[in-house]
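Hello,

Our lab assistant flagged a job as stuck in the queue for most of the afternoon. It eventually completed. Since we weren't sure the result was trustworthy after the delay, we are filing this so someone can double-check. Below is the sequence as submitted and the structure that was eventually returned. Let us know if re-running is recommended.
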Amino acid sequence: MDIHRLEAFRDNYIFVLHNPAQGAEQGLAAVVDPGDAQPVLQTLEHLGATLTAILNTHHHSDHVGGNSQLLERFPQAQVYGGIGDRGRIPGQTHFLREGDRVQLWGGQGADSDQPTAEVIFVPGHTRAHIAYYFAPSKTTDWGELFCGDTLFAGGCGRLFEGTPQQMVTSLGKLRQLPDTTRVWCAHEYTLNNLKFAITVDGSNAALHQRLTQVQAARGQAQPTVPTSLGLEKQTNPFLRWDDIHLQQAVKSTSTVQTFARLRGKKDQF
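-- returned structure --
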């Protein structure tokens, strides 16, 4: 599975997952959160690929806005989303729950080793938000996490339809994944996120080092996605609500209250 990161709008990322291998499934592709169809269609044409699946993490228009146009070109493509997003995702054909599994190439081809995503229910940003996790085939390989607007590089999503408790639970699920997991989040928010993180976690040497690296990368218009879950666990305050230094920074001893105060500060940053 090759992953192609596409830019859309001001700061969105769309991900095309492509099978370049020989055999019955050669030239098949899936897309994650196509807010805009045009860059996806251009990429599919360049790859000579047929779209078999649209994987939506949640219903916001900058994640599903391209669904209808893609289905006009590839009407057989299956559209996946959370069961709670019924009626909110254009063309949705599959309504997913926690623990469901999605085979990228569907029933096409005979390869039982095709990439398969586990569905993780992660409400908070929206009430029906899900993430797709592709576990590595070997323990020495990287896993791939497509988490939409739940976890960002250095941050997390705003709470539009969920509660702090829901988001802590959701982020806790993602935090349990291996450090060797690539995090393909849907926005280029990293620099701003880390500038905020420094204000509440200023004694974190790994965070200072990361901020310097990201400032250099963004100064050259280089993307900072994907990140790694191991790096997020070290430097992302929204995965460290139980860290004593962060609790002291927001004057809280409760994990949920710590998260809520961090999120409130970030909303005002």
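-- support follow-up --
The delay was a queue issue, not a problem with the job. The result is valid. Residues 133 and 265 are 30 Å apart (CA to CA). The longest strand covers residues 12-19.
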